[in-house]
Amino acid sequence: MTDEFEQSDLLGYILQNSNLNVEQIGDLLLGLIFGGHETTTTSIVLSIYYLHQCPKALEQLRVKHVGIIKSKMERGAAAGLTWDDYKKMSFTQCVISESLRLGNIIKLIRKKASPDIHYKGYDIPSGWSVILLLVSAHMDSSVYEDPEKLDPWRWKNSGEYNKSEQWKSIKVVVVEAMSDGLWNGKKYGEKNPYYS
């Protein structure tokens, strides 16, 4: 059965190189399809929304993209974008990164503690949830100057954006899980135990 698939695609790779059963493979693929579709669509909409609020950024994008198209036409190159064209669009990546930061598509990450965890003076019982609030880093004024403003140029200056500082500002909330999977609202703490 796996001979029908080339390893160059995701399904072929999974079939040839994993020990997942059919149900697990189906769950994985559905998660990738639906998760990727929702986040990609939301990212595009957010980029358009934020660019409307920043005509300077929109104009810079337009000039760069039109320049790439004109250059391709002058060379007689085929229509459509290539990987080399994409690599010339560094400001486009800055706009995407800034739209994702402002939009906070993934607002939190939730993991269940298993087994009991003791880390830097914190005891997290097995079964409790650890929730990383990503929005706390994305909108932290100690990490981003004027965090509520679209500023794609901030991604050009590596000095202004410091990844280690961003992660230090993520809030961690630990809550006790009830037997039905709902949280009872009892917070264990909001301090970031990883950077105390």
How would you describe this structure to a colleague?
- With 196 residues, this protein is α+β, with helices and mostly antiparallel strands.
- It has a domain at 106-196.
- The protein is built from 7 helices and 6 strands; from the N terminus they run αααααββββααββ.
- The chain has helices at residues 10-17, 22-52, 55-75, 83-87, 90-103, 135-138, 163-168, and strands at 108-112, 117-119, 122-124, 129-133, 171-177, 183-189.
- The strands form 2 sheets. Strands 1-4-5-6 form a 4-stranded antiparallel sheet. A two-stranded antiparallel ribbon has the order 2-3.
- Helix 2 crosses helix 5.
- It is flat and about 65 Å long.
- The N and C termini lie far apart (52 Å).
> What share of residues is helical?
40-55%
Distance between the termini: 52 Å
Indicate the low-confidence ranges by residue numbers: 1-6, 176-196
Number of strands: 6
Q: What does the largest sheet look like?
A: 4 strands, antiparallel
Query: What is the residue-averaged pLDDT?
Result: 75
Strand order of the largest sheet: 1-4-5-6
Number of helices: 7
**Given the helix and strand composition, which structural class is it?**
alpha+beta
Shape: flat
Fraction of residues in β-strands: 15-25%
The gyration radius over C-alpha positions equals 22 Å
